[in-house]
Amino acid sequence: MSTLLKATDIVSGYLNRPVLHGVSLELAAGEVLAFIGPNGHGKTTLLRTLSGFVPFRSGEFEFDGQRLEKASVHDRVGAGLVHVPQGDQLFAEMSVEENLLMGSYLLRDGGEINRRLDQVFTLFPKLKDRRGQMANGLSGGERRMVGIGRGLMADAKLLMLDEPSLGLAPLLIEQIYEALGALRAEGRSFLVVEENPSRLLNFADRFSLMDAGHIVWSGNAQEARASSNILKTYLGGH
């Protein structure tokens, strides 16, 4: 598989407080890489750095053959790097369809926009039923679907998902991961941070454990299951 994303020695943070300390990662096209670890140790900052919301202090970042560490958020989205943030961050006073269309703001081809919209409605039939409903009236699960759908409208080559199951009931989590599994089967690439990483054991190809802004362990799902410390501490095993 060809390399889609490669980041080397990333250092980034907020104001005078560094959060990431020399983080390196690589992701192949069609692969799913999951980041696990304690809250407040750099996982969300990593996604925000890759998507351009937190600036690189040092390090290199290549995505789909382009150097992007100095690129704008706009240019990164145009390259196919799409971040679905924790909490979804929808436009509350806009409808479901309007929120989805915001994901296609770089497109000018109406036919292609409609094709992508149909794909999202096929993946999440609930959203088709609620296409005219205001986002502030949606359930948590429906909001999560809209957030993911908006990322798909941007025709993402890589979807970076920050805790897609956060705060959802088990049935809704199953629905979200069923949809994500369908996208994975189509060859979609993901970088995922998850509140309950045990759900990723049947979804992710590889895991990286982040602690205090460093990657301290990496391995595949089989290796994660075989590591008693990883299972007990981060994957909910016993």
UniProtKB/TrEMBL annotation:
Entry keywords, A to Z: Amino-acid transport, ATP-binding, Nucleotide-binding, Plasmid, Transport
Cross-referenced InterPro entries: AAA+_ATPase, ABC_transporter-like_ATP-bd, ABC_transporter-like_CS, BCAA_Transport_ATP-bd_LivF, P-loop_NTPase
- Superkingdom, according to UniProt? Bacteria
Give GO terms: molecular function aspect only.
ATP binding
Against PROSITE patterns, the record matches this protein to:
ABC_TRANSPORTER_1, ABC_TRANSPORTER_2
Which SUPFAM superfamilies does this UniProt record tie to the protein? P-loop containing nucleoside triphosphate hydrolases (SSF52540)
Which residues are in the ABC transporter domain? 5-237
Q: Which family does it belong to?
A: Belongs to the ABC transporter superfamily.
Protein name per UniProt: ABC transporter ATP-binding protein
